[in-house]
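Could you show me some protein's one-letter sequence and the numbers that encode its backbone in two labelled lines?

___
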Amino acid sequence: MAFGRKRLNHDLGIERVCIGTALILTSAERVFGIDWFVKMSLSRWLLGTSPPAAKKAKTSEEKKDIQRQYEAKRERKYNKSWEREFPWLYFSESEQKMFCRVCKKFSPHDDLSSFVRGSSNFRIDPIRKHWTSEQHKRNRLKENARVSVPGTTTAAKTLTMLNKAAVNKLCVLFRNAHFVAKMRRPFTDFVQLCQLDVAKGTDIGKTYLTDKYCQKFLTSIADSERDNQKSRVEEVPFISIISDGSTDCSSKETEIVYLRSSLKCEVKTFFVGVKHIGKADGAGITRAISSLLDGRFGDIWHQKIVAMGTDGASVMLGNKSGVVKRMAELTNRPFLKGIHCSAHRLELAYKDAVKGISIHQKCELLLTNLYLFYKYSPLNRSNLNIAAESLKKSVKVPSRPGGTRWLPHTQRAIKTVLDGADVIILHLEQIQQEPRKEASAKARNFLKVLKDKSSRFWLHLMLDVVKALSHVSVTIQNNTCTLADIYSELESVKQILQKYKTSDGPFLRTLTESTEDEFSSLGSTRIRLLDSIIDKLTVRFGGDSALFRASSILCVDKWPKDFSTDIEYGDEHVCAAVNISGPALRESCPNMDVEAIETEWTRLKTTLTTRKHTVTDLTSLEGTFGESFPNLFLLLNFLLTQPGSSVEAERGFSCMKMVKSDWRSRLGEQNLSDLMMVTLELPEVGKFDPLPCVELWYGSGQRARRPFYKDELKKCYLPRETDTSDHESMVEVSAEIRGEAVIPDDGMMMDDSIEDDNVVPDEDLDALVEGETENYDASDDDDEDEEAELSRKDLIAMQQRAYRMFLDMIC
């Protein structure tokens, strides 16, 4: 008990001491304003306790070691909650990396930044750093411009603030530039057209009237079409490349590239560009094609290419190092198929069949020599026309039978000689009597063959055969031609040639009916020729026969009107098409159910029979049943994408030879591509709409555009008190020009609305402004010599005042 009281008294004593100490410290804090550390020291002194030993401070190296040890043990993971703060961030489970969706889509193909190629540094600091980077901000602007409603982008709003006169002026200039390209005229003709507009009273000002700006306008026109092409490539499921090579007038090896695609069963083939190459081998051509496509479409074409159309050269279709093989390795698509141009194969089959037939060689040499006889002799052509007038007949000068890939040229040469045979024979008989020994000798030899019965029989037979083959060639040359169309025409021409073995064609029948001559001696040669052509066609098209036959399902005009009469129609073709295209379909469309295609084909036939739906074309059919049978129509679009020929590339080279002639042999690669893009892809002069091109050009410059810059310079020469009240005020572009009502932002103001005091004088006046001469860059004049920078209004006003002082001094 006593011990307990002592313990209690001891505790109460300590408590009283602590309470007293607290009161003393509180009073000291109020009186002297001591801080917490001083209070703690006083409390230890009053209570008689000693302070704890101070801890030894760690050095910076020790702290780094501790942090490194901590980071080594810590396993960082991707935090899904980051996506709420940064919506552009996403995580790839397969690569275990995080990416920026915006930068990965809009950054250049060769960009190696961490959030484009993938970052495994799962910390918030790098994400925030990327969020504030300039590259990310630029890509965000690109994304906003891509998804924004038309007319709401900065460029569109800026254009709507142009006054009506400015829009009309730019439209006239763009139409002139478009006309120059369409007519394949030099850029200097643009200046002449502008002078003609001025002479007719059209107000186009004095700005942008040089050939240099004609080239810039054409670039914007071509870029506008390129944007449309890129949008289509992003939308279609499959694409195929059509490529060919040639030498231009400057002796440069040039590769031309087209793309073929099918969207909603609507086929479109468009020009991509041309590329000069140093050496036309497999590696050089592959680099040229891939670099051209990368620059235009990024890497999206890698995931959509399924075929390549070529001219059949070994450098293109070689099994080991051909371009198609290299492109398959480059895109990691081993199923990539190279298709030899059908028009070339048709012509090669014809040439292979007529080899070794002597009568054909004799007739072919006759056609060639008659062409040369009249082509290089104006006297012979004149005498031929005189002979035609004496017989009261019209005659055409014999044309060249070969030299091209197209059989219709051979048909035209044969028909020209047969139709004008009487006139030609009369003229040659007249030449025999002339003293010119060489001409008379040629005439005798030509007459000998022309009057020969066997030659006349063979020419009429060949006209029947070549006309049948030419119909196939014309079908192939159609830019929307499909493999099904080619297969159907080939089967038809084989049946026609089989028929000609036992019966005469229309042209040969006219000969046999008009004469009583017997031509039985050529019967065996005739059968041998026809059999040889059929065999050569089968051999030339044998490599792709399965694909051509499977594509016949695309011929809707051959579908039965009532599938109930033939419920198994097309099953074999659909099954073959699935087997051929299966790898490409699975790789290009991962969500596609390839195994469901055959079932959907049967369901489609049943639906068409039940609803009694009349099928007119595949485009309308997909518009009606595309959502019900998506896998089947993906297969049809795949078959439509296959290039049947490289005819478009041949047309492109014809255009290139007209654009880049001997007079314009110094045209560069980019200018040549721009001119060909306008010539091949843009509408004709009367149907061209320049407004989208004007909008693109106006919003793409590094400096502000000044359509009336040189016109405004006139104001600089006026005295200050000159009345300018008649100057046209700014108005919005009317609905009749833009086609829509636009309400501009209040804060937006166009360059032409700047007051007269802010008008920028000529660039040469920059030297008058003290302190600004070092900022003058002469290289800017090469690119934007007629535009002014409007970002520094104080500089503009200073330049204006300096120029007025200069005027006052010289007056």
